[in-house]
Amino acid sequence: MEISEKILEILRSKISKKSWEMWFGTFSVKSVTEALITFSVGNLFIKDWLSQKYDKQFKSSIREIFTKNIPYVIEDEMAETELTEKKEKKERLIRKRPVVYSDFNKEYTFENFVVGPFNEEAYDGTLEVSKFSGKMNPFFIYGGVGLGKTHLLHAMGNYLIQNSPDTRVMYVTAEKFMNDLVMAIRKNSTQEFRKNFREKIDVLMIDDIQFLMGKNGIQSELFHTLNHLLDHSKQIVLCSDRTPTQLSEFQPRLVSRFQMGLVVKVYDPDIETAVQIVRTFAKRSGILLTNEMAREIANSSNNVRTIKGIVTKLVFKSSKSDINDVVISNAVKDVIGNHPIMKSANSEKELFFQVLSSVFDVLPAELDAKLRTARLSSARQIGMYFARKYMHKTFSEIGKWFGRDHSSVVYSCKKVDESIRKGNLKVREKIFLLQNLLHKQRGESAG
Ligand code: ADP
Ligand code: MG
């Protein structure tokens, strides 16, 4: 066996299979002398990473074979090429790195994602797009809140950072995209904004795209951004709480771009899958639940985020007492609230109407019907105001939710705004309740 092969073999035996496959794909032994061993690798970032992470393994492998210490260096392949060219290329690569970084939540990985029939399509799609960037473009995921969309985007980000470290990935919420643009316009730096979003990235992820409904100016910028990226075969990934066609007040040209690639839905989990999810979370958190207990939790919500919140709560409670039915039902109450509602909201409107009906003690179906009572009118008016002010809905979208025309929405919002200004405590209290309940239902308090 050649000495270089031998070095590789010994080195390989010291490194886990997964890491080897991940990092040593382009690794080779370039030259061996008594004074220096030179390794080579195809990528500048891997080079640095390897020498930091595996220094010990390099040294001990060398010692094993040569029975003494010989210094080593790792070169990237480009060290071969002509000096000036190398310098240029290197600079380009080096500059690439910092823009890569959006902060990805390290917990949100593919490995930590529980796959079931309800989210399989989205999971498979995201993995595929992570592996074959640009193949299905744009990639559009939609589904209700708390069902793992953001998790999947982060999983893709984490995956790319690991597996193709020089891919420049940018993750933003639609809200951040908007704020950055507004700021850029204010500071007279739209050129830079465009450069950031068009030229400096290979993968652009925009989360919660529905936020841009009705925001026409931002949509135009987005349209040109997407076009530019698509023209240059850069991958675009979008998330939304509804289908492209349900994005009301969106420019048709944008909607048709969204539909151009792969569109996948995350469904609500069926009860069996929800039980499975509860069990997985419990197991990972190191608590034991009987089947019945898991079922009880799964029955209380089919929102994955909420389920996660309840399990987290249980972990906390289990440090103080054994887990039993009472502890579980308390944990459920802590997370969801005392309201026996909101089991399976499919859309934002449905969820909101459930919350609204619970706070005002009316039926959800009455809210967008014609019936008029004092209680209903007040629920509608405050609901409209809330949707505008806290959920950033447009007037006409709110109109559609409540089956009212534009002007009556505007009127309601104005009226509620006035009574708040006048210090109407009852209205304030309702708003406070709505905020709390919606917040809880979305599980943000927990997860
Ligand atoms: P969305 O963006 O669809 O509203 P998130 O991605 O924010 O939902 O998910 C909410 C929480 O639930 C996160 O903590 C996430 O990690 C968790 N979660 C959602 N789906 C799954 C899943 N299939 N496996 C594991 N955790 C999940
Ligand atoms: Mg999300």
Query: Can you tell me the number of structural domains?
Result: 4
Task: Give the second-level CATH assignment, the architecture of the largest domain.
Answer: 3-Layer(aba) Sandwich
Instruction: Report the average pLDDT across residues.
Output: 85
Cofactors and ligands:
adenosine-5'-diphosphate, magnesium ion
CATH fold-level label of the largest domain: Rossmann fold
Percent of residues in helices comes to: 55-70%
Number of strands: 8
Sketch the major β-sheet: 5 strands, parallel
Count every helix, treating DSSP H or I runs of 4 or more residues as helices.
Answer: 21
> Between the first and last Cα atoms, what is the distance in angstroms?
55 Å
- Strand arrangement, major sheet: 5-6-7-4-8
For this structure, what is the CATH class of the largest domain?
Alpha Beta
Topology (SSEs and partners):
Layout: H1 3-13, H2 17-23, E1 28-32, E2 37-41, H3 44-53, H4 55-66, E3 72-76, H5 83-100, H6 120-131, E4 139-143, H7 149-163, E5 169-173, H8 174-186, H9 190-199, E6 203-207, H10 216-231, E7 235-240, H11 252-260, E8 262-266, H12 271-285, H13 291-300, H14 304-318, H15 325-336, H16 348-360, H17 364-367, H18 374-389, H19 395-402, H20 406-421, H21 425-441
Parallel strand pairs: 2-3, 4-7, 4-8, 5-6, 6-7
Antiparallel strand pairs: 1-2
Helix pairs in contact: 1-4, 6-7, 8-9, 9-10, 12-13, 12-14, 13-15, 14-15, 16-18, 16-21, 18-19, 18-20, 19-20
Bound molecules: adenosine-5'-diphosphate and magnesium ion.
Residues 149-150, 207-208 line the site of magnesium ion.
